[in-house]
Amino acid sequence: MKRLGLLALLACAACDPQRADWGLDAVEGMSTPPDEPELGCGLQLEPAAKASERAECSYRAGTHAGESLGNSAAVLAKVPIRHVIILMRENRSFDHLLGKLHERGQPGVEAVPDSYSNPDASGVAVFPARATSTCLEHDPGHQSESMRRCVDGGKMDGFVQNAAATTPTDGHFVMDYYDEQDLPFYYWLARSYAISDRHFAPNVSGTFANRAFLLFATNAGVVDTGIVFPPPNTPSLLQLLMNAGFTWAAYSDGAPFSGSLDWDHSFPGVRRLQQLYDDLDRGSLPNVAFVDGVEDEDDDHPTADLQLGEARVKAVYEHAITSPQWQRLAIFWTYDEAGAFADHVAPPRGCLPLPARSPFTELGPRIPFVAISAWARRNYASHVPHDHTAMTRFIEAIFDLPALTARDANSDGLLDLFDFSCGRELSGPPPPEVGSGGCARLGTPPG
Amino acid sequence: MHGRVTRCGATGTCLLALASHAAASEPGGFDSQMRGLIADVGIGTSGVGDYLLGELGAQWQGLQSLRSRRWLLSWDLRASLRGGYLANQEPYLFLLGARLASFAEGGYRTQAERELSPYLGLRLANEEQLLVHPGRALSEYDQYNSIDGVGGLLLRGGLRFDAGASWLTEKRSLLLLGFVEEAFQDLQVYTEALLLTQLGVSARFDLRDGLSASLEGAWGVSPERSDQLRSLRDRTYRVSLAGQFRWVFQHQSWIAANVSLARDSDHLQYAGGRSYDTASAPVFTADVSYGLSLERRAP
Fold first, then answer.
1. Which of A21, A23, A67, B161 would disulfide-bridge B279, Cβ 3.0–4.6 Å?
2. Which CATH number belongs to the domain containing residue B114 in this structure?
C-alpha cells in the first residue's frame, strides 16, 4: 500500500496538475535546418515600403511579411540571418538607461529635453539626475494602473508621483539616468550597432502582458503581472516556427520568459544559459533563442545590479562574435517594459490585435532596443515607431511565417536596422569592460 | 446566442409547473424534498486564478415519484447572492452579484411495477451568474486580467438525455445512468462561446428525507472551430468528474458538499502545418452549504 501511495504521489507530481500543457514537446525532436551557405551580401531591401498601409493597420492576421513589408517573399528569403537571439531584459526605460547616449557617441537618438521634469507629490519639479547606484533599493509600481498614471495621457509626467505612491520614497529616483561611466558596455553597444529610439512597450502595463505580445501578438487576457497566464491554446510564434520546420529554445537560469508563461525547466525547449554559450561556440543555435535572466539578480529588474546584467549581456555578445554562426545571427537587446522609470516620449497607438480578443491599442513608454549583428547598421539610430511585435515580424519575415494578429501584421519588421550590402565590415568589434562598483556610490571606488 | 440561453433559463419556470404536481406525495411512492434558505462557501481553481466565494440564498431540491412510480422527477433550483474574491491579480478582485442555477429532469420508468426498472430521462439545466466589481462597468472588464469563467456575466445551459436503471422503493432511490448532453457556454470577455457534446455516466442514491449522494463523470468534445485568418482549426475536449453529498438532519436542516474537477484540452491543427495538443490547468471546485428548511414536518 505504501508503494502504491508513493507511486500515486510521484504520478501526481509528474503530471503537475496546477500547470497547463502547451503541447510543444515536438520541438525537442526537431533539428535546426542547416544554414544555406549561398546566402550572403548584396540584398537590397526597402524598409519604408508599405509604411503608410501599416500605419493605417491595413493588414490582418495571416498576412505574410512579403505583402505587408513591400519586399517579396523571394527577396526576404535571401536575408542571410537564420538565427535570432532575443535578449529581453527587465524594466528600464530608454531615458533611464541611456539618457546621455545623445552626448556619448550617438547624436542620432533624441536627447532628453532640458525642460523635461515631473512634479513630485508636493508639486516641485523633479528633473533628470545621474543615478548614484546601479542597485536600486526600490521597484516602483508598474502594472497597468501605475503605468497609466505615469503616462498621464501622453504628458509623461506621472512617474515621480507613481513611484512615491508605490514605494516608501519621495519617488525622485525614477527620474535618474545612467551615464557611460556607469554602464560602459551598454553604452558601447547602443552606439556601436543599430539602435531604435522609438521602441515602445506593446502595452501600458507590466512584464506578463508585454512579453505576451512578443509571443502571441496580443496580451491574451493578461493585463497585470502575477497570477494569470495566457491560455495554452493561444496561437503563438513558437507554433508558427515549428509549423515551418524551424526551431526555438528558451535559455535561462531562472524562469523561462521571466515567468510570463508559468514554465520551468521541465518544459520542452527550455535550456540553461550555459547551453546558449555552448550552442554559440559550436554553431548549433536554434533558429530563435529567447534569453532571460534570473529575476532580480542579473535580469536588470530592480533591485538587481545593472552591472551584473551588463556582464551577462557582454558574455552573450563575446560568444556571439566568435561563433561560427555570427554572420547568420541577429541579437535584439531590449527590455520587456519601462518598469515605471521616466521617459519623455509619449507612446503612440498600435493596431488592435484582432482576431485575438484584446482591447489594447495604447503602447507603453519607450525602452532601449538595439539590433546587434554582422549585418546591423553600425552607429545607426532608427526613429521608426514600433513595439515588441516588430521582433515577431522580423522572425516571420525571414522564415516566411504568417502574422499572428493585426498587431504584428502591421509592424515594420525592423528592416531599416540592417544593411546587407557587400563590402562592409562583418566582424564584431571587441567590447569594452563592463562597469564596476555600481552598488557602491557611482563615481567612487568600490568599497 | 443569448436567446438560446434564455430558453434554457426557463428551467425555473418548468420547475414551477412541476411544483403543482409535486406538492402531494403519491401513496407508496418516493418523495424527498428540501426547501429552505442556504449559506454556502466555496473555493476553486480556474484558468484565471483561485477564488473564494460565498452565497446566501434559497434552494429547492427534490426527487419524487409520480403515477405509481412510473415517473420520477428530480429538480434543484437555487437562487442566491454571491460574493468573494478572485485571485486574478493583486490585490485580489472583489466580486459581488447574483446567481441562478437549476435543473429539472423528468424520468420514465418503463417497468413501474417493479422496484428495479429501466429508466429514460430528459434533463434541462441552466446557470446564470453576474459577478461584478462594484464601481466598474461590465464594458471595462477587459482592463483587468481575464475573469472568464468566474466573474462578469456567465451563461451556461445543457440538455441531457439519460438512460439506465432505476431502483426505487418508498424509502430509497438509486439511479445508475449513462447520458448524452449538449452543453452550452456563452461568449465571455476573452473566451469564445463553447458548445460541448458530452458523454457520461452517473450514479445517484437518495434516502427519503435523509442522505443524497451522487457521482458523475463525463467526456465532451466541441465542434471544430475554424480560424480562417490563421489557417487554424481548434477543437476543445473536456473531462470532468463531480460529486455531491447531502445529509438531512432530524430537524429538517441539511448540510451539503459539492466537489468537481474538470480539465479542458484543445487540438489545434494548422493547415499544412503541425498539430498541437494543449491542456489548460485543471479546474477544481469545492463548496459546503448549510440549508435551513422553511417547513416543519411532523415526525
1. A21
2. 2.40.128
